[in-house]
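Protein modeling request. Please complete all fields; requests missing the sequence field cannot be processed.
Requester role: graduate student
Desired output: 3D structure, token encoding
Chains: 1
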Amino acid sequence: MMRSKTLHTVCEEARCPNIYECWASRTATFMILGDICTRACRFCAVNTGLPTELDLQEPERVAEAAEGMNLRHCVVTSVARDDLKDGGSTIFAETVAAIRKRLPLCTVEVLIPDFLGEQDSLQIVMNSNPDILNHNIETVERMSDRVRARAKYRRSLELLRRAKEMKPDIPTKSSIMLGVGEEWDEILQAMDDLRAVDCDILTLGQYLQPSPKHLDVEKYYPPEEFAILKEEGMKRGFSHVESGPLVRSSYRAHEQVKSAADAREKKRSVVSS
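Delivered output (273 residues):
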């Protein structure tokens, strides 16, 4: 299906260890806007360089593939396209609309880049009303400049804050990978920073080095520490925390939609009473 429609998935491009489980659960993460990223983050296996084209028919092909696989939850992410004026936000919005037209009952999550902080680009995506808006801070503040390319920790937090301001009912989500040199108290501070911008969902996973040219793994966290971090996250008020060595941003994403919806209804009932 992917090959015949000339589509890409972050499941394959980023060498995710959970591809078999997620695809068997009818959850897939499409990677739109090509397979060449304009950034070269030191943790990521996706190809980097200068993209050569923009495929305007891609949203419809993604929707056709989602329909063909009868997906229950569809995650749409992309490479960073700093070469585009809107950062690719229009294609994101068109992809959400195309999936909804073919699969009205399929929930759609978007995992977006920071669009270099352009508010208009974020507004275009939010106006498409995704079921979940996902943007990853990736690591703690001290490590951000070393780990990420061009992306800024505070700019990512501001994006999540603005997304919630634009559409308060759309759950927001972020992810932190562990093992790149962060300290325990910095992880907890990053959680606090995310909750300060009303981020609803958090995923925590172990960084694994994709190749010798990427960042070294500084620490392997045991499952017991991931379990403690999940408790810390839930204590801070996240509606859902997915925490484990092989957890990635879209792992069990379909389950998080219900958690976020339940938390939203609980919040509404408290306000009304």
